[in-house]
Amino acid sequence: MDATVPFRPRPLRRALALGLIACLGASAQARAAAPLEAGPAASAADPVEALSAEAGSADAAVESARSADAPDPALAGHYYLRGVGEAGSELRLRADGRFDWFLSYGALDQTAQGRWRRQGDRLWLENQPAESSRPMLQAEPAQDWTERAEDVLRERVEAEAEAAALARCPFLELTDWAEGVAEPAATFALDDPGQAAAARAERERAADRAQARQGLPARERALRDAVSELERAAAEAIAASGARPAAELAAGSAADAAIKRAGAAQQRYLDAWRDLYGARAQAGIEPGERPQPDYPPACRRPPPVEAGRLPRAQWRGGHAVLIGDPGQGMRFSGFKVRFVYADGGHAEDISNLGGWAVAPLRAGAPLRRIEIEPELGDGGSGIGRLDFDATRGAGAAIYPVRLDARQLLVPAFERMELRIDGPDLVPVWPGERERGRYSRASGSK
C-alpha cells in the first residue's frame, strides 16, 4: 500500500459524463451511492484488457444471453468513442457474446462487463456486474513498524498534547492572531513627479523613518514589559487553576478570574508586538522574530519531532491500522478504529487521509483486538464491520486492512442501446438525438 489517495466519507457523485452514463438506453439508471469518495484509481496501460482478464470467471454464472438473439460475429472488435469532447471510452465486443466497456471523463472512471446481442439494426449491451465472494473489509498479515507509522503516531500525540495545553491555557489561542502582521503599505506616484518633487518625497520618507527610529526604544520597553506581565499572569493562572482545563472552572471563581487576566495580558503582549513590528518596518529596519514568553510547562506546546531525525531506539512505537486497496491505488479515511487492550482498556482513532489510524503502546497491556467500522455508517454499501485479533499485540506493528474498492463502484449502466450505422455503433439517446459514435479500431476484429 504505497500510493496515498485522500478519501472522505460521502456519497459517490452520480456519473453524468456528457450523458454517457445516466442517459444510455431507456432503462439506464444510477444505483445507490456508496459511502466513500474514491480518488483516482491506478490506470492500466489498456483498461479494457485489464477488465477482460477478470471477466472470464464472473461470466460463468451468466453464460446465456437475456434473449435468443445471438451476437453477430461480424460486429466483434475493439471500438473507440469519437466526437464527445474530452470523454474517452472504449468498447470491446467479443465473438462469444461478451463485452468490456470503459469510460474516462476527468477524474471519473467507469467500467462495465456483460453480454451483448444484435437485434435488427440495434445492438444491446446488458451489464452484468461481477459478484464478489471476497469480504468488503479483510485483515492482512501484520507488518513491522515503519518510520511513516512512527510519524503518524507522533503527530497524533503532539496534537493531543497541544489540545490539552490549549484547554488549560485558552489564552494561547490568541497567539496565532499575531502571525503575518502586515507591513505598512508602500506609496507609489502615478505620474513622474520630476526631480524636485522626487527629492522632496524622499526627504519626507527619510523624516518619517527618523521619527519612527526615535520611538523604537519606548516600544521595545513596552514589549518587554508586556512579556514579563504575561509570564506572571500565566503562572498565576496555572497556580490558581491547578492546571485543570479552563472549561471545568466555576464561572466567577478566583481561578476563572486568573485565566481571564492572563488572556488580557496575552492581548496586551500581542498589541505591543504589532506596534513594534509596524514601527520597525516604518523605520526601514527588519522587524525580526516575535519574542516568545516563558510560559508555564502546562501551557507549552510540544515541538514537532520527525522520526527520521531520531535513532530507531528512541521511537515510541505503537499500533497502527492502514486501510486501503493497493490494487486500485486507494487509501480510505473516515473509519473508526477501536484498539482493545488486554487490561480491558481501549483507544480510538479515525483513519486519516492517508488511511492511517494509530494508538500508543500500553505498558503491561498487550493489544488484543481491533474493531473497524465506517465512522458515519456504511450507507447501505455493505462495508459493515471488521473485528480481528492482534497477532503482534505485545509489540509495535502495522495491521493492513484491504477494502475491496471495486465493490463500491456504482454500475455505469444496466442496459445500453446502440444503433448500427455501417461500421460504427451510435449511442441512442432519449429522443433519438445522436452524440458521438464508437468506431472500430484499425485492424480490430
At a glance:
This protein has helices spanning 47-59, 147-168, 194-214, 216-241, 254-282; strands at residues 77-82, 88-93, 98-105, 108-119, 122-127, 137-139, 318-325, 330-331, 335-341, 346-350, 356-360, 367-374, 386-389, 397-403, 415-421, 424-427, 437-440. It is 25% helix and 23% strand. It is an alpha+beta fold and 445 residues long.
Describe the structure.
- By secondary structure, the chain is α+β, with helices and mostly antiparallel strands.
- The protein folds into three domains: 17-134 and 408-440, Lipocalin; 137-154 and 316-403, Sandwich (Immunoglobulin-like), CATH 2.60.40; 170-295.
- 25% of the residues lie in helices and 23% in strands.
- The chain contains five helices and 17 strands.
- It has helices at residues 47-59, 147-168, 194-214, 216-241, 254-282, and strands at residues 77-82, 88-93, 98-105, 108-119, 122-127, 137-139, 318-325, 330-331, 335-341, 346-350, 356-360, 367-374, 386-389, 397-403, 415-421, 424-427, 437-440.
- The strands form three sheets. It has an eight-stranded antiparallel β-sheet, covered by helices on one side. Strands 6, 7, 8, 11 and 14 form a five-stranded mixed β-sheet that branches.
- Helix 4 packs antiparallel against helix 5 (254-282).
- It is flat, with a radius of gyration of 33 Å.
- The relative contact order is 0.20.
